[in-house]
Amino acid sequence: MKEIKIESNFIVYNSINELPGNIKSLMHEAIDARKVAYAPYSKFEVGTALLLDNGEIVTGNNQENASYPSGLCAERTAIYYAGSKYPEAKILKIAISASSKNQETSTPIPPCGACRQAISEYEVKQDSPIEIYFMGKVGEVIKSDSLVNLLPFVFKKAVL
Ligand code: THU
Question: Which residue has its alpha carbon closest to ligand 1 atom 2?
């Protein structure tokens, strides 16, 4: 037997104001999307903005449902729309902002496990990494160079 060690590096920005200009704008798009999320049940609103290699920005937010499991996270709403509308485009960057109506979200909120798996599919499909920036409502923003940092033992189509 052996032990293996997997290390990941992340950049932590103190606030949205520290982000490079183009990422700051992308995060503002995510925040705008977050503000119109449909989350009447959890009161937890998430917004996502994607920058594609064709220059388009695609946004999404969480869409909840009275039948709870029928709802969908912001990240998947956005990437599935991007995948359907621009099937040939690569996703370069993803910005995510999350905010709760029950408490102040001042720590970075990462994408959930299911969304990590879904984002991974697009890294495999496009054969290039996707930069991911995530934050709460205020405070620090974490940057990951690739989804792989967030889900090291990802399940991929190569094994099917
Ligand atoms: N949610 C997202 O939109 N993205 C995530 O990565 C985590 C959770 C949504 C789903 C649900 O509408 C609400 O946040 C509470 O879980």
Answer: 73
